[in-house]
Amino acid sequence: PYRRQRQMCIRDSAFKAEAQFTSDASHELRTPVTVILAECDTLERTQPTAEDYQEGVGVIRQQAQQMSRLIGQLLHITRLEQGTQKTCMERGDLTALAEAVCEQQKMIAPEGVVLTCDGPDSVEAQMDVILMTRLLNNLISNAFRYGSGGGHVRVTVRRTGSCAVLSVSDDGAGIPLDQQEKIWQRFYQVDAARSGGEGTGLGLYMVRQIAQLHGGTAAVKSAPGQGSTFTVRIPAE
Ligand code: ADP
What we know:
The structure is a single chain. This protein starts with a helix and ends with a strand. The chain is built from 5 helices and 7 strands, in the order ααβαββαββαββ. α3 (94-106) packs across α4 (129-146). The protein is 50% helix and 19% strand. It has a 5-stranded mixed beta sheet with strand order 2-4-5-7-6. It has a two-stranded antiparallel sheet with strand order 1-3.
């Protein structure tokens, strides 16, 4: 009876977590929809000047882009969690992958931000290249977004013991100690305004989910005012 009760509890909490996820996702999507509808109402009711019209369309586009980002990330998460996106684990070189991702990210780095990538010649691990690329892109774009204007973003790869270790550091605002566990939760944002309206609060949740799929971990060390270092460890070959 104890085991049956425990299984029921687990099923019950999985059901509750799923219901919470649906409720949170609906709430996040409702905000941009509400803004879009309000903007359409205003444009219809008033006689907008060409300038008002442009402004209104700009708001609608921005909110639709936010919805599109949210839906894209929600789909990625659901596919991973339901196992509909098959992971394709292959032996690969984490240093080479980090270098390739950094080359692309350099092209879209904010002005004045220097992105560097360091690592030994090769650090081999079993990985899904698409997922690892997504993980790196998420961490680097966060470092761009929350880093300091003219700062440095440093990507490093190393091998310690049996682990392939990847870290992304910035010298930005950092994260208050009491929020450092919460940032891994779905939809959690320390300060939504800081992301310039482009954040979804899903990036780090996905980072940790991808690290765990590789049998690894994702963690943060951050000192407010000095910057943050996100570290992902996966088993090395
Ligand atoms: P978001 O889409 O809001 O960036 P994430 O899940 O990627 O969502 O991050 C959650 C929150 O963690 C962000 O809203 C931000 O407040 C904080 N955060 C993430 N990366 C950094 C960073 N490099 N420096 C400071 N804060 C960060």
